[in-house]
Amino acid sequence: RTLGLELADASGRGVSVRLTGRDLEDVTGVAFELSYDAEILEYAGASAGSYFGTAPVTGARVVERAPGRLVGVAAGMEQASGRSGSGELVRLNFRLLRLRDTQTTLGFATPQSLVYGPAGPTPQQTFINAQLVTRIRAPS
User: How many domains does the chain have?
Assistant: First the structure.
C-alpha cells in the first residue's frame, strides 16, 4: 500500500517522472505536491497513468504551478468504492534547461501528498520513495 516516484524517461532534453502506486486499496484519488530544481528543469505537462483509466471524468492534471513546485490531482470514476491494485497514477514531463556540468543530479520530492478513499484521506496508504534523486548526462 505504497506510492512513490520513479524516473520514467530521461533522453535528450526531456525528463519524465511517474507517480506510481503498489498494492493500493479502495483509492479514489491522489493529491500531490512535487518540488524540483527550477534552475535546471521546466515543467512541460502531465498525462494520466493507466491506474484510474482514461474516461473523460478521470485522469490527472496539475492544478497549481510555480517555478520549482507543482500541485496536482489524479482521480478515477470509482468514487463510491475506490480502485485497488498497482500502476502509474500520473506522469509529469519536464524540459532540461541546462546542466551545470557533464552530469547533474536531479532531485524531486513530494512534501505534501494525500491518498483518498470513498470516506476521505486514507492514512493506511503511504508515500515511500517520496524523493527521487538521479544523475543525468548532458546530451551530446
Answer: 1
